[in-house]
Amino acid sequence: MTPQWMTAERLTKLAELCERDDHLCLKGHSACLEKSHYQWATSHQETVAVPVVILWKDPETGAIRKDKTSQGWKPVEVTVWEWESAYLHEAVVEETIASWKADDREERSLALKREQQDIQDGTYGRYGGFAVMGRDGALRSRFDPVARDQFMAQQPEFYLKATGMDGMHARPVAVVRVPSTDICLYLDVSAAFVKSTKGQRRHARRHGKPVQQEVTVEELCVEAVRLWWQKRS
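Below the sequence we write its predicted structure tokens.
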């Protein structure tokens, strides 16, 4: 499955970074013989058991006797460091991809907020409505029927989330989100890449058979979303 951050422009940017910083140490030196400059450190937290000495306490008097002790174990969080060889372009690429992922998360969050505001009442949305008082005393917005039809008419038929190859069946797939829902559909779009040859089309016309119609990925996604809405209704 193709990662969501991977676009043509970003792949070009990664190629430029690798060409610029290839075989440079992590400090950016062009000719560096210091081995420590090629060590990339990563850390993670682990829980280890540390032996401790437990003093004996008299259950009757509550007095602590130092001459009677026992050994116990205490869990302690420690930081474990791992070192591996790396060049400057590897560190820069990791940081760049992480920043792209953060930008995409922020963009998706803002898009979801804008979509939610579009279906709210007239205070925040574009299509208006009116507020009603619920049984719990909270105000809730109710759609104006005309405004709802207008909003639904302007919705795209689907949101394309990702495209790639199915690793188990070796076929092209697409992930689309149904508008105004959190439902994502995983679709087999291999039919869009099956092209009929000139001989097959000539054979079909000669024998009066229907010629195979070529479809696109967008058409397959639209049809899948429509079928989903029909099954739900």
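The longest strand covers residues 64-85.
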